[in-house]
Structure formats: C-alpha cells, structure tokens
Specification:
By secondary structure, the chain is an alpha+beta fold. It has a single domain, classed as Archease, Possible Chaperone, Chain: A, domain 1, CATH 3.55.10.10. The chain contains two helices and eight strands; from the N terminus they run βββαβαββββ. A five-stranded antiparallel sheet has the order 1-2-3-8-7. Strand 7 (132-143) and strand 8 form a beta hairpin.
Length: 155
Amino acid sequence: MKSMDHTNLPAERDWEKMPRFDIIEHTADIGIIAYGAELKEAFANAAYAMFSLIADLESVREEVRRQIEADAEDRESLLISWLNEFLYILDVERLIFRRFEIIELSETSLRAEAYGEPLDESRHGLKSGVKAATYHMLKIEKDSKGYSVQVIFDA
C-alpha cells in the first residue's frame, strides 16, 4: 500500500494531519482507502484519490463548477454511484476535477459541488485509465477517529 499526501504524521493518528488517501495495489486493478473526520470528507477524498490516479491534479485549475447529485439504495452503493458519475463526466464531457465539497449526505443520497476544468492531455499529465469503481473489497468504516472508505477500481 502506497501512502499519499502525508504531512509529518505523529505516531498516533491525528485526523487533521492524516493523509487524504492511500493507494492499494490489487492484481491488475488499483484501489484507494480515503480518510475523513466526517463521512462527507471521506467521500470527497475518495473522489480526489480517484482523480489523482488518472492525472496530476496539481495542474488542474478550478475553472468549472459542477453540481453533482447521486442516489442509491445504501451508503456503499452511494459511494460507487458518486465515483462512477465522475468517470462518466470525464468520459463523455472530458471534464477533470480536483476539489469536492459535499453539501448534503444521507444514507441514500448526496449533493455536492466539484471544481475542475476541461481535460487537457498535454498539461494534465495523464497516468492510468480508471474504468469504473467496483464493489470488490468495498468498505466504509468508522472508528473513534473518523471514517475510511476503501474502493477498488477497474483499471
């Protein structure tokens, strides 16, 4: 497992200084574990992690704001729906995002805003193709320090 976005972590995990996500190597696929003090933050960090697998997010500007809504039967399905909605937008509209603000989140729906720009393959340093978020090894967990969400992507 590769850790990303660390900033001088203390021995004891402090959610304000924790990494946003970790990368999971999984056979031909790739996955992430995203963290957040609140579930909203973990969902937002999962989207950020997914896009970081696709491109260099430091080069993505926040020129476009898109409202995103997702509905599903349960939290796990909602996470998959949320991430796959972004992959659909990337594929069809060629938009890439780097910042995510979840405005409302319930067990079965969410409303959010995402910030990014049209994909520019020469500037965005494309890495790997992510085809879909899958249910394989999907987890949403809560402990005394916050939430973690684990997703494996079909690459």
